[in-house]
Amino acid sequence: MEQMDKKLSYEEAIVRAGDTLHRFPLMKIRGIPLMEHIAQNWSSIWAFRPDPSDLLISTYPKAGTTWTQEIVDLLLNNGDPDVSKRAPIPVRIPFLEIFSPPPIPSGLDLLKDMDPPRVIKTHLPIQLVPEGFWENKCKVIYVARNAKDNLVSYYHFDRMNQTQPEPGPWDGYIRKFMKGDLGWGSWYDHVKGYWKERERRNILYLFYEDMKENPRQEIIRIMKYLDLSLSDDIIDRIVQLTSFKAMKDNPMANYSFMPKPVFDQSISPFMRKGEVGDWANHFSPEQAKVFDEDYTRQMEGVDIPFRSNI
Fold first, then answer.
1. Which of 192, 197, 199, 218 shows the shortest CA–CA distance to 207?
2. Most buried of 2, 108, 196, 232 (most Cβ within 10 A)?
3. Residue 123 catalytic?
4. What are the domain boundaries of the chain?
5. Could you report the per-residue pLDDT of 162-201, keeping only the tens digit for each?
């Protein structure tokens, strides 16, 4: 009952705050552009102290975050679909750094009301992750998506998310992405930062493309990282429950609980395509050439095995 009350209060809070929500500007924290309300509350975010049992799921925006959250929640709850539908995903797995106008609870507010072990979401680049996660040796799952598909997905998300800066025209958005002038900064620095620290900090580094190609294999990798052991039948059920179609139809995962003034899904659905290679439908040959040349320069000396097609 308590969880149901939280779900209702979260949804109602967003509706009630509707008039105060708008496209917030970006402000820089240690050189990283973050949404204004995150930057204004940075000291409390940076001071957050996780429990050693807490798990952090980190991604650059639109790299498979919600998908990974749903997989982890099902793994931790023995693949029980009813448990995973107990509340909207931001209530089940709070977004560490998110702050919105009252009465919407912040990620820190939600975490305060939860007992460890907790699962926590972040988009912060590794240098902005509160130090307590490393000091307490918390487990961290990082998911990376190839740059072009990530860019396309972020562009459509910024079109429909009425609290993020106006994306502007597609060609200009490509340039913003290359320069790192988007919320949470540079994709290049983000994926490289976690990659370089993955062994030293015991980070499970996953690729979106691997999850699409062989979801069962990657779910088992996550299960083992979490020191869990579930039967083949439960794994198969989790594969099915976290398919793109199943999640698109799941109101606790598809963000349909967000009102139109916040997420206008008539512009673009939150669960849009979930494909690998959709970038080819957006980039002109000239845009792809410019992007690829810049990508080679920015990723020089780093051998991260990204795939733009599978």
1. 218
2. 108
3. yes
4. 2-298
5. 889 999 999 999 999 999 999 999 999 999 999 999 999 9
